[in-house]
Amino acid sequence: MTDWNAMSDEDFRREAREFFESEYPPALRYILRRARWHEMKEWWRKLYEKGWIAPNWPREWGGMGLEAGKMVALLEEMERHGVARAPDQGITQVGPIIMQFGTEEQKRRYLPGTLSGEFIWCQGYSEPNAGSDLASLQTSAIRVDDEFVINGQKIWTSLADDATHIYLLARTDRQVKKQAGISFFIVNLQTPGITIRPIRNLAGHEEFCQVFFDEVRVPLSALVGQLNEGWNIAKALLSFERLNIGSPRRPQYALHRLEAVARARGLFADPGFVDRYAAVKLDLEDLAALYGGFVEQAKRGEALGPEISMLKIWAMETWQRVTDLLVEVGEEQGVMPGVQDVAGVKADFLNAFYYARPATIYGGSSEIQRNILAKYVLRLPG
Ligand SMILES: Cc1cc2nc3c(=O)[nH]c(=O)nc-3n(C[C@H](O)[C@H](O)[C@H](O)COP(=O)(O)OP(=O)(O)OC[C@H]3O[C@@H](n4cnc5c(N)ncnc54)[C@H](O)[C@@H]3O)c2cc1C
Predict the structure, then answer these.
(1) Does any ligand 1 atom lie closer than 6 A to the CB of residue 358?
(2) Which of 218, 225, 230, 212 minimizes the C-alpha distance to 142?
(3) Which of 157, 164, 235, 283 is deepest in the core (most CB within 10 A)?
(4) Is the CB of residue 210 below 6 angstroms from any atom belonging to ligand 1?
């Protein structure tokens, strides 16, 4: 297997650029919404065959084990070419969790299929009354003989209708403090008793779903880690999630559109615009540096502490600032739905704007991230 870290940064970047330019489907460049599995599976196969599907996984499990500098270079090249994010929660979230907390059998059973695209994952954390206050979740898993029986409802489950498996939190003990009675399960979505209903978002896309569990019987091997210790796993997974969504990838995506439109409109001759452009560009540079630091930390196998909330806030709010400016430079076309043509440059301004709106909600809202920083990093009085 190739050791990508042994390449010089320049050679690696060139290789990435050439690969994306020659192999990525042109019709999927710069799509400003979550890509669906049927659109991405061919691209997934190409990445898999090249050994590039899991930049963050160790080489032992078929990942690239990329060092931070190359990880950022890879993301930058993806953005430059407008490569969309595949339905990758298996790679970015549950894969690392199975490596850390799973049994040897779970590792062998799930990791290779997650890499190859045989298993597509979705995240069943949120419930109608348990979002920010996740520990209040009510979905239950009761042990009956050699099975757990799951009942309850999840909501906002991204791309559940594309997934083959869900990783979820369920209450396994109601007698203890709420965090102490939660366990982490992995469930095949074909199991009888599961119903998935898509929800249409503001931009008109069916990006997330409700998932109902009605007497869903799963084997004991669906439990990851120890019974009632799911809260620690949930927190570890949220750190991986915040690292992933804190990557400069999406704001960079929007910045490239912004630059193209600004060039087409001659705005780089306008000092007022250049001032505002420079501010968001520098915010993005800061983000790339911050992200690189956390990637290195994760690669050294160090736990990601509450400081990761800073990355989530900075990434998401920078992204929103870029898309705000994008709508402005679109002028009257900036508020028109659908793809607009500005002096030969195509951009879907409004969709970019919409797509960035929920970013300060999912993965833990900005208010909650600020609470975490206040309490656990700055140690401010509560
Ligand atoms: C696009 C999108 C995709 C998502 N995908 C998934 C997914 O795949 N799987 C999944 O499990 N979930 C998913 N979610 C759900 C997401 O995690 C929740 O929306 C989020 O945790 C907030 O919970 P909530 O919606 O219940 O809002 P609430 O918790 O009801 O919060 C409402 C408002 O109150 C504020 N608030 C709440 N508590 C406090 C507090 N203590 N201090 C200060 N302010 C507070 C919040 O910041 C927010 O502004 C997704 C959400 C979105 C928007």
Answers:
(1) yes
(2) 218
(3) 157
(4) no
